[in-house]
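note to self: dont lose this again. the chain is below, predicted strucutre after it. 520 aa total, dont forget to put it in the shared folder this time
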Amino acid sequence: MIKNIKWLFFASLIAVSCTQDEVNYDEVEPEVIVSAGDADFSKYVALGNSLTAGFSDGALFIAGQNNAYPKLMADQFAQAGGGSFTIPLMNDNFGGLLLGGTPIQGVRLIFNGSAPVPLPGAAPTTEIITPLTGPFNNLGVPGAKSFHLLANGYGNVAGVAAGLANPYFVRFASSPSTSIVADAVAQNPTFFSLWIGNNDVLSYATSGGTGTNQLGNLNPATYGGNDITDPTVFATVYSNLVNALTANGAKGVVANIPYVNSVPFFTTVPTNPIAPALIPAASSAQLNQLFGAVNQITTATGQPNRFVTLVSDDGNPATVEPNNPLLIIDESLPSLSAEITAVLTPVLGAQTATFLGGLYGRARHARNTTGNADYILLTTRGVIGTNQAGVPAPFNVNGISYPLQDNRVLTADEVAQVKTATDAYNASIKAIADEKSLAFVDANALLTQLSTSGIRFGNFHMTSSFVQGGAFGLDGIHLTARGNAYIANKFMEAISAQYNSVFKMYKPEQFPLSYPAILP
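---
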């Protein structure tokens, strides 16, 4: 019924973006004399989650791992006395994982000219029960939350099915009973990077807020996979991590947590994608009558109106009607199910009125007002306009007459909860970094700038726009190779400022905008 995203338009923009890489090869750049300054890079370890591991386009694969920001940093550290940097490489450039021969993680995405799709003909070959021999310098583990870095047994394959262990760490943990930070400390590092905490709010956000905000719960062992970590727990965990990593005198660099709504997973699908032509006049009239009745209830009870007037195409080519907003569920709203049922029963009968009362009791139209905006998940784009199974017409059209459910939308209330937690995490990160005299990267400010005005990276204007912006891959969350190069530069700038180090910075033209279908 509806075309959700103009993927072909995005494809054309990729070609336009590529033309922005204007390189003047006649320029003579001054020679950079690389120096470690006050730092010692002879044994560098990197701790974090999927961003640190090199996850991109929905998967972990060799090319992404080799373009991860810690690997790019280690290559520069090597020119300043740095030692080898060992990575727990995947088996291939397909991505995905097997557990006893059964796929448990899918292959990477490619852009086929119309849409991101799984790499055609690819299948995972990386078996997690086949252990790797370490130690490994890149200890980034996709999916890890802050407290997972301290968790003994996080690499025990027996705990994978129950969510107590991580399949990526299973591959390269030094033993089933160890922790990520223990494997880092055992290497006696002289320098470390730590970028952790994203998943402490991100899993909640990408689930559409289906988890629980664990504010006040100080026992992370009781948390669900999509829950928000209590800020006190985060602060304690982070302090313990840094204490362990600096116990032998190691120096390091840390980064804070970006706001989730600065990445294209949350900003690509607009709140009002429904063109007037996609709602027949009879349908809009029926829905407006129903929604108007609900607005009368909210007015009578002193609540804000929940619905706007839907607009259909008037057939006049000289007029342009505005797009219509999506219909969503907002669980923070008081339920009006009983009131809707009571009002509609005399008109529609008890059975239909009860059904509509249950359907629209916490429904409203999505909004995009400053400071009070909803965010439609990237994964929701394929659902909008489809018919919801088991629901009678005309109340079965997702996002129009059938509300998008909680797992499809991050509501303004849920965004506020994520922001509050993120701000608390970031205050702890900065305070601990200052206390330990560590280099600090304000990743939150960088990604906010990407999502607003964009960033000039060499001769390339990089933004957070999906597909064509150059910073984020096809899953809408993880960085491209070029995005990793930019972040590596920012980490090295922070290290230089704190420890008087000198590095050669990366240029955008050294890295692709996106990974091709065929990789070695």
